[in-house]
């Protein structure tokens, strides 16, 4: 990764040197509703966004024009028959709402944009498109079909085994076809085929929801997959979260929804203007006696190639032995367009070693903890079975360590058909693993017969980070792999054991840090919908959403994620819609907690404490030493005060101005009670780092006490904890930024780069390639030592970008950027980039002796304020010249520590002495 980054940087500099005098202004990354492939959306006034690309400095948009047409031909002629905005005097490039003719179900729209700037006019952008899905319930034709029964080879006990259902139907395209569009809801998971070809490259689709509240449909343009005359459609339904992994087990806790089912519409538009819809109904045929004998997210998939069905999804297949599809009860949830990307095989990696454990058993090492599955190629006799069992780590004897997987069986079985080289990978499961135990392989296996298939939501990388400290770099890489492992249509806690649940508390601040690495906007916008759908009528929000597990604990710290992620989407992506959409539900929860759990001015209910504080013994899961533990009332009340601060902001955003005053008064009252209850001798409660940190970062501490509380905080970290981390999930959400904001960036850097217990570096030193669930995940009780969690990252990744690279949004969504690095002692170089919603931001600095070079890039139509850590502005140069020679560089202020400059868009190279 290091070499890749350096090569990328060199290529970027080379490219810039060739184009530095170029005056071209182009419009790129033209997107609708922040979606890369917006097919079948259910928003009739979608928001449009674009980026300006140019090598000129200080470029600002002054106007734009958008054309939206009903055909590519009209758009090519610059005819916006749906909307011609005309020239709009505005500098906005994101969140521009469509304001043309009313759009209806099945509308297809093509659009482009051009801009005017202070440096010139662009050409039209490339054409982008979006389509409207089936907005109304009555737009769906046909019926839900399925098989509401199991078969002799199935098992519906605690460890469920249910075979996949195969559906098919022949149909005729009667005339010359103009277009064909599929709309499908396949629960729990589906694969769709037309004339033997798979539709799309998605896997594990659709994304999971609480199916009693909402079910997602996918839309595909399939015109090129059909032919005039005879055609066939086929689908395979897997179990997913719909047919629950654990039937007949803790029904009070685990939701079940029923047997797999499907709703399908294929809209055909003929060239003569006539239309026809092929629908799901009881004319379809179905069988469960196919090769996928069972599929279960916890336990694996069993595939019997001797049961393959031949050309079952092609026209003319003889299906007389198949059953008639049943018309079944529809799920309770509303039909919703899926506004986030499906999962996909995002990378294929090769294993690094294959070792023989005994006569029948081999251990494959991928070299990286990952989430996905294994693809194999094998030759053998009909009926031979290859068994694959997955784990994150090994025992001392080289065999799999599986105790931390609890009762998840994590086993795939492939039965050979005996016909030459057979290549197979599962369809409806995923595993979290680094190692694979292989048994029953017909011949001696070789490395080249296996591939690791990395699976997560189809989203682009947003950020790169590299530094002169190898520990920092490996932690970043581990975080990257851990985050992508746990994006599964929703953010889950872990990908390997019998849990894999979307815990809210894991992402309270984590989602913010993740947004610097991945374009996770639509994933988290969808998750807010999941949270709202899980809310009870009285206002209660669960700890897990969708609420596949019924965990309504009524604490503050986990459900507060509903509020903090909405704020993150606004701050990082400029998206206020989640705030507007969810404000009533957020307010309901906030008032519910206050009314139900306030006593003596404090919120009394807390469930988890500062979860996963580093324990005093490496063998413990949780600390028992009370001096390490923070009062639950303090955690709950401090977090609730933060909620009230954000609710005031949200009330302003949504024009609920009366609520601003109400929430402000509540904040003041809770602060007063908090300080009266917990502050003694400039320490809060028992003086844990978390106890003193939260009042500082949430502005609860009075001005008179702030310095002393901060001093006690630092003293505790340095003296009691030997400059190591001592916070759990709650405190770690603010630890690194809190220290940097107290001008203790050097201490934050020391904590980040520690290599002994407890630290992120301790994980690295002990061979971790992802982030552990516990600080002592290599020694604690096995039932909770997942090696692939992200909750302990806290605000570390935010700190990487905001305080090491120095990239921060001063205003919403990087319209005005703050560039301010801690430049900590001991760190000599940082290279970072972030693909913001407005364009690429880069920050690269390097210390050589007492001279520092800082190269930055600000996207067009943005500006930045940059803090140069030298008060001697006359000796600061840019490109070898004094900064006073550039009109696009303005001196905004001087202090004892900084020269503060404002710069326009473009690339700059500053040199100064520290």
In short:
The protein is α+β, with helices and mostly antiparallel strands and 914 residues long.
Q: Could you characterize the architecture of this molecule?
A:
GO terms for molecular function: hydrolase activity. Residues 461-803 form the Alpha-L-rhamnosidase six-hairpin glycosidase domain. Pfam families: Bac_rhamnosid (PF05592), Bac_rhamnosid6H (PF17389), Bac_rhamnosid_C (PF17390), Bac_rhamnosid_N (PF08531), Ig_Rha78A_N (PF25788). By secondary structure, the chain is an alpha+beta fold. The chain folds into five domains: 20-131, Sandwich (Immunoglobulin-like); 140-293 and 307-340, Jelly Rolls; 345-457, Jelly Rolls, CATH 2.60.120.260; 463-805, Glycosyltransferase (Alpha/alpha barrel); 814-913, Maltose phosphorylase, domain 3 (Sandwich), CATH 2.60.420.10. The chain contains 15 helices and 50 strands. Strands 20, 21, 25, 26, 27, 28, 31, 32, 33 and 34 form a ten-stranded mixed sheet that branches. Strands 10, 12, 15, 17, 18, 23 and 24 form a seven-stranded mixed sheet that branches. Strands 35-42-43-44-50-46-47 form a seven-stranded antiparallel sheet. The protein is globular, with a radius of gyration of 29 Å. Mean pLDDT is 95; it is low at 1-21.
């Amino acid at each position: 990764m290091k070499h890749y980054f350096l090569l990328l940087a060199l290529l970027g500099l080379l490219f810039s040197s060739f184009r530095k005098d170029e005056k071209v202004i182009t419009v790129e990354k033209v997107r609708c509703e922040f979606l890369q492939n917006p097919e079948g959306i259910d928003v009739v006034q979608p928001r449009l966004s674009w980026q300006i690309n140019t090598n000129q400095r200080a470029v600002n948009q002054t106007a734009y024009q958008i054309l939206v047409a009903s055909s590519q031909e009209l758009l090519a002629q610059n005819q916006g028959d749906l909307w011609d905005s005309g020239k709009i005097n505005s500098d906005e490039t994101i969140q521009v709402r469509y304001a043309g003719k009313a759009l209806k179900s099945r509308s297809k729209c093509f659009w482009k944009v051009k801009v005017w700037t202070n440096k010139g006019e662009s050409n039209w952008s490339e054409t982008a498109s979006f389509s409207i899905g089936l907005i109304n319930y009555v737009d769906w034709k046909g019926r839900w079909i399925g098989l509401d029964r199991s078969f002799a080879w199935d098992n519906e006990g605690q460890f469920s085994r249910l075979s996949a259902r195969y559906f098919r139907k022949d149909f005729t395209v009667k005339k010359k076809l103009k277009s064909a569009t599929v709309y499908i809801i396949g629960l729990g998971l589906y694969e769709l085929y037309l004339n033997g070809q798979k539709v799309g490259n998605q896997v594990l689709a659709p994304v999971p929801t609480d199916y009693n509240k909402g079910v997602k449909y996918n839309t595909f343009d399939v015109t090129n997959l059909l032919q005039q005359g005879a055609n066939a459609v086929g689908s395979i339904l897997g179990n997913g979260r719909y047919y629950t992994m654990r039937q007949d087990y803790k029904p009070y806790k685990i939701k079940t929804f029923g047997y797999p089912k499907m709703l399908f519409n294929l809209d055909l538009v003929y060239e003569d203007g006539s239309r026809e819809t092929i629908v799901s109904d009881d004319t379809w045929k179905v069988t469960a006696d196919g090769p996928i004998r069972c599929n279960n997210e916890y336990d694996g998939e069993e595939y019997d190639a001797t049961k393959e069905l031949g050309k079952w999804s092609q026209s003319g297949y003889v299906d007389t032995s198949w059953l008639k599809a049943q018309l079944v009860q529809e799920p309770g949830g509303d039909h919703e367009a899926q506004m986030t990307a499906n999962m996909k095989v995002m990378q294929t990696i090769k294993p690094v070693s294959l070792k023989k454990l005994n006569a029948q058993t081999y251990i494959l090492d991928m070299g990286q903890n990952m989430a996905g599955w294994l693809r194999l190629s094998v030759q053998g006799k009909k009926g031979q079975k290859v068994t694959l069992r997955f784990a994150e780590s090994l025992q001392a004897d080289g065999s799999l360590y599986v105790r931390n997987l609890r009762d998840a069986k994590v086993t795939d079985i492939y039965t050979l058909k005996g016909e030459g080289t057979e290549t197979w990978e599962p369809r409806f499961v995923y595993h979290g693993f680094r190692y694979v135990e292989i048994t029953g392989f017909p011949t001696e296996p070789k490395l080249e017969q296996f591939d690791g298939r990395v699976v997560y939501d189809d989203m682009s990388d947003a950020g790169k980070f590299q530094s002169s400290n190898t520990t920092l770099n490996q932690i970043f890489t581990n975080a990257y792999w851990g985050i992508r492992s746990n994006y599964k249509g929703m953010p889950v806690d872990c990908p390997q054991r019998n849990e894999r649940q979307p815990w809210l508390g894991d992402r309270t601040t984590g989602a913010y840090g993740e947004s610097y690495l991945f374009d996770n906007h639509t994933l988290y916008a969808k998750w807010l919908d999941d949270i709202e759908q899980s809310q009870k009528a009285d206002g209660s929000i669960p700890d897990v959403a969708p609420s596949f597990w019924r965990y309504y604990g009524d604490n503050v710290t986990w459900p507060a994620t509903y509020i903090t992620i909405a704020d993150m989407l606004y701050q990082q992506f400029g998206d206020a819609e989640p705030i507007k959409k969810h404000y009533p539900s957020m307010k309901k929860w906030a008032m519910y907690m206050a009314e139900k759990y306030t006593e003596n001015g404090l919120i009394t209910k807390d469930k988890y404490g500062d979860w996963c504080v580093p324990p005093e013994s490496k063998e413990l899961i949780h600390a028992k030493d009370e001096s390490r533990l923070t009062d639950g009332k303090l955690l709950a009340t401090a977090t609730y005060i933060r909620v009230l601060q954000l609710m005031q902001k949200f009330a302003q955003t949504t024009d609920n101005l009366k609520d601003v005053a109400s929430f402000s008064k509540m904040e003041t009252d809770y602060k007063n009670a908090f300080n009266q209850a917990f502050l003694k001798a400039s320490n809060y409660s028992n003086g844990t780092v978390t106890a003193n940190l939260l009042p500082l970062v949430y502005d609860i501490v009075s001005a008179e006490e702030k310095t002393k509380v901060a001093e006690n905080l630092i003293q505790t970290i340095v003296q009691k904890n030997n400059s190591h981390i001592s916070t759990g999930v709650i405190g770690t959400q603010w630890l690194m930024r809190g220290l940097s904001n107290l001008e203790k960036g050097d201490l934050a850097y020391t904590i980040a780069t520690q290599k002994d217990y407890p630290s992120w570096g301790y994980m690295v030193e002990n061979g971790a390639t992802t982030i552990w669930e516990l600080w002592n995940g290599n020694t604690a009780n096995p039932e909770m030592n997942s090696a692939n969690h992200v909750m302990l990252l806290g605000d570390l990744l935010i700190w990487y970008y905001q305080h090491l690279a120095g990239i921060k949004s001063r205003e919403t969504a990087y319209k005005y950027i703050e560039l301010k690095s801690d430049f900590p002692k001991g760190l000599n170089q940082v290279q970072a980039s972030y693909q913001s919603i407005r364009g690429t931001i880069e920050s690269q600095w390097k210390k050589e002796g007492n001279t520092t070079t800082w190269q930055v890039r600000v996207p067009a139509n943005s500006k930045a304020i940059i803090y140069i850590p030298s008060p001697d502005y006359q000796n600061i140069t840019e490109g070898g010249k004094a900064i006073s020679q550039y009109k696009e560089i303005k001196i905004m202020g001087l202090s004892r520590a900084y020269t503060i400059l404002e710069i326009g868009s473009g690339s700059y190279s500053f040199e100064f002495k520290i």
